[in-house]
# Entry
Amino acid sequence: MTKTLHHRACHLCEAICGLTLEITEERNGGPRITSIKGDPQDRFSRGHICPKAVALQDIQNDPDRLRQPMRRIGNQWQPIEWEDAFVLVAERLAAIQEQHGRNAVAIYQGNPSVHNYGLMTHSNYFLGLLKTRNRFSATSVDQLPHHLSSYLMYGHGLLLPIPDIDHTDFMLILGANPLASNGSIMTVPDVEKRLKAIQERGGKVVVVDPRRSETAAMADQHLFVRPGGDVALLFGLLNTLFEEGLTRDSHLPVDGLADVQQAISAFTAETMSPLCSIPAAQIRQLARDFAAADKAVCYGRMGVSTQAFGTLCHWLLQLLNLVSGNLDRVGGALCTQPAVDLVAATSGGHFNVWQSRVSGLAEYGGELPVSALAEEMLTEGEGQVRALITVAGNPVLSTPNGRQLEQALGGLDFMLSIDLYINETTRYADLILPSTSALENDHYDTTFNLFAVRNVSRFNRAILPKPDGALHDWEIFVGLAKAFAARTQSTLKPTIAPAQMIDMGLRAGPYGDASSFKLSLATLDQHPHGIDLGALQPNLATRLKTDNRRVQAAPAAIMADLQRFATLRAPPLEELLLIGRRHVRSNNSWMHNYHRLVKGKPRHQLLMHPDDLARRDLSDGQRVRISSRVGAVEVEVLASEDMMPGVVSLPHGWGHARPGVQMSIAVEQPGCSANDLTDERQLDELSGNAVLNGIPVKVEAA
Ligand SMILES: Nc1nc2c(c(=O)[nH]1)N[C@H]1C(S)=C(S)[C@@H](COP(=O)(O)OP(=O)(O)OC[C@H]3O[C@@H](n4cnc5c(=O)[nH]c(N)nc54)[C@H](O)[C@@H]3O)O[C@H]1N2
Ligand SMILES: Nc1nc2c(c(=O)[nH]1)N[C@H]1C(S)=C(S)[C@@H](COP(=O)(O)OP(=O)(O)OC[C@H]3O[C@@H](n4cnc5c(=O)[nH]c(N)nc54)[C@H](O)[C@@H]3O)O[C@H]1N2
Ligand code: SF4
Ligand SMILES: [Mo]
# Structure
C-alpha cells in the first residue's frame, strides 16, 4: 500500500480552493481517495475548504454516475460505443438541419461548463459547426446583467470590476450571500475571514437582502429590501450622492455622467423609499456612510441580477463605485489582470444583433435568453426548434417554468446530453455522453482567475488515471466534430489539447515570455499550490474597450430602460413574493446524490415569517401548497424570523421525484422545484435575464 499527496483546485464553485488529496494505492486494487483537506500552502485559499470538496470522492465513486455512452430506446437505456454514438448524433442533427434549417437545433450550456476548462476550450469546436442562432445557457438565469452593463459601459462583457475585499473599509453587499455561495463574480476563498478582517480593521459590512442571510447575520448592518426593489434603493443612493454633493472625482475618462445626474434628479430617497420598503432617512444615511468611507465598494450579485431591473441595478452599482471615486481604485472595485487574459484575447461582444423568433428577445454575445427556449420548441412554424443539445446543464430544474420545458423536451425529434447523470433533464435525451470525472482530468481556472480578488494562476494535472474507454469532455467534442464534419462534408480546422492552449495563453499573456515571470505550463507544474501574482491594481483606464476608450456612464440602451422603471409599483401588501436561497452543502441541482451532503435535517423547505404563517392559519412544519401563475408545488414550511414579512424563500435545484431519474440518493429526499413556480414571462426586459426572485405566489395548506 502506498500513499501519495496531490494538490489541486476544487472546481465545484467559484472560490477555487486549493485542496490536498491523499491517494492510496492498494496492491490489488486501483488508486483510492483516502483524504481531502484544504491546502494550507495555497496562498490564495490559505487552507479554506467547505463540505462540498470532501464530496469529490463521492462524485468519483457514485455508482449512479454514467461511465459510458447511453442510448435511450423507449424507457430503456442501453450502452453504445463512442464511435457509433458520434455517427448517430451527426446523422440525426445533419438530417434535422437539412430538413428544417440550421436553427432547428438548439444548444443549452450549463454552469459546470465554466468550471471545466476543456469545455471552455473545445465545446465550440463542435457546437460552432452547427451555426445555429438558438444558443442558450445558464448565463440568462444568472449574471447576464453583469455582462451587459460592463459591455455597454466598458466595452467588454468580461471587464467586470471585482470588490477589493482585502483592502476596503466599507463593503455594501446587495443580493449576495457569500457565506453560503462562497462568492460569485468575486472569486474569494475564505470569504468569512476576509469579511471579518474588514470589521477588524475598523471597517463596515452592510448587507441588503429580503432575508437575514448568513452574511447579513455577520454584517454590521442589515437592511430588508422588498424583492425587486433594489433598483429604487440604488437610484435613491446615487441621487443622494449627487444631491448632497458627496461625489468624488475619478481618474477615469467618463462620458455621460451629467446626463445621468439630470435623468435621475427626481429619484430622491423619499420618492424611492416606498418602492424598496426602506425608509428614506436610512437610504440617505447609507449614501453618506458609503461616501464617507475612505475606501468603499458596492457589490451586487445573483439576487440583484435576477430581477425585473437587473441591468439597471448593475449599471447603478457601477455608477455608485464610479461617482464615489472607488472604481478602479485600491479598496474599491478593480479589474483583474489574469495570466490567461480572455479580455485581451476576445472582442467586446455584441448585443441585440438578432432576436429570438417567437418573442423577439435580444441576443447577447450570440446567446438568446433561456426563458425563450421552451416557446421556441413549442411554437410551430418555420424555424421551430426540433432538436436540443444540453451540455453540463439541467434546465428542467434551473430555468423558469421547468414544467413547460419538460413538455417541450418530450416533443423533440432528437436530444443529446453531454452529462454525468440521468437526471430531470437528461432523462429526455436520446443519447447521453458522459465525460471523465474532474479528478481524472487536468484543471485550469480560465474563468475564475478572471474574477479573483487577487491575481492568481494554477494548473493541476489529473490525479486519478483516465479509465479505459473514457473520454474527457473536450475529446467528446472533438469526436462529435469529426463525425459531423464527415457527415456534412465540411472542413474541420485542426485542434490541440486544452493544456497546450493554456500554455500558449500563458506565454502570450501579461506574465508570459515577455515578462519576468515567464509563466508557462512548465512553470505552473513546478508550483502545485498555485502562483500568487499579486493584489489587484488599477488598470481599467488602459483596459477599456469602448470605441472612444472612455467609460460610458449613460449608454443609450440603459437610458431608454428608465422609461420602464417609471412603471414600477409597489406590489399589494397581501401578496407574497418568492425568493431563492443557497446552502453551503448544496450546489445548484446536481449535488444532492451524495449522502455526506444531504444527511441531517432537510434544507429544501419554504421559509416564511411567523406573522405570515399566522395570517394564513398555517403552522411551522406543515405541508403547504405554493402556487404562481405557472404552476403549484407542495413542500413543508418552516417559520423563520429571518424572513422579511411578505417574502418567502425556497431554494432551487430540488424536485428530483420525477419518473426515470437515476440518482438514487437524490430521489429519496426530493424537495420541490422552485422553477415549477418561476415564470418564463417575467424578464429583465433589457437583457432578457430571467426574474427568479420576487415571484408573486400564494401559500395555503396542502
Ligand atoms: N429559481 C432559481 N433558479 C436558478 C437559480 C436560482 O438562484 N433560483 N440559480 C441559477 C444559476 S445562478 C445557475 S448558474 C443555474 C444553473 O443551472 P444549470 O447549469 O442548468 O444546472 P446545474 O444544476 O448546474 O447542472 C449541472 C449539470 O451538469 C452536469 N455536470 C456536472 N459536472 C459536469 C462536467 O464536468 N461535465 C459535464 N458534461 N457535465 C457535468 C450535472 O450532472 C448536471 O446535470 O441555475 C439557475 N436557476
Ligand atoms: N453552496 C453553494 N454555492 C454556490 C452555489 C450553490 O448552489 N450552492 N451556486 C453557485 C452559483 S451558480 C452562483 S451564480 C453563485 C451565486 O452566489 P450569490 O449571488 O451569493 O447567491 P445566493 O447565495 O443565492 O445569494 C443571493 C441572495 O440574494 C437574496 N435576494 C433574493 N432576492 C433579492 C432581492 O430582490 N434583492 C436583494 N437585495 N437580495 C435578494 C437572497 O436572499 C440571497 O441571500 O453561488 C455559487 N456558489
Ligand atoms: S468553497 Fe467549497 S466547493 Fe467552493 S471551491 Fe472551496 S472547497 Fe470547493
Ligand atoms: Mo450561477
Remarks:
- The domain at 576-701 is CATH 2.40.40.20 (Barwin-like endoglucanases).
- The radius of gyration is 25 Å.
